[in-house]
Model the fold of this input.
Amino acid sequence: MHIVNMETDERYHQEHTVVHRRSRGIFLLWLSGILIGAFIASAGAYAYIHYFQSPSIPNDPSASPYYGVFLTNGLAYFGKVSGREPGEIILSDVYYLQQSNDQSGVPFSLARLDAQAYGPTDIVHVNYGQVMLIEQLRQDSQLVSAIAADQK
Done:
C-alpha cells in the first residue's frame, strides 16, 4: 500500500512549477539576448558596407582632376574629389548634365551646380551607399573640354 502525503505532494508540485517557470524565463531571456545581438551585428555590418567602406577612387596622374560620380538613382555629377569623410565623398567644382533645349541636336548640355536658381554651393557630399561608379576623366575628354571652356 502506498501512502501519499498530500501536504508534501502539493509543496513538491509548487516548487516544481516555480523552478519550471524560472528556467523558462531564463531561456526566454537568453533567446532575446541572442536575437538582439544578431540584429545589432547585422545592422553594424550593413552600416559598414554601405556607409563606411569607401569605394575605390582611381588616381591617374596623367588624367584630368575631374571625376564622374554615377549614383544609384541615375544622377551623375562631374567634379573634383576634394575630400572624404566617414561614409561620404566630397566633390567640388561640380557640374551635371541637363536636357538641352536648343535646336542643335545635342540632347544634353553641361550645367554648373552653383549656377542654379535655388542657389546651391559648389560642394556636394555624396553618400557612399548611393555611389554606383566613380571614373576619372581623361584630359582629352569632351566633358573636360566643356568644363575648361565654361571656366574661361
Summary: Residues 1-53 form one domain. The helical segments are 6-52, 142-151. The first helix runs from residue 6 to 52. Strands lie at 66-71, 76-85, 88-99, 108-112, 123-127, 131-136.
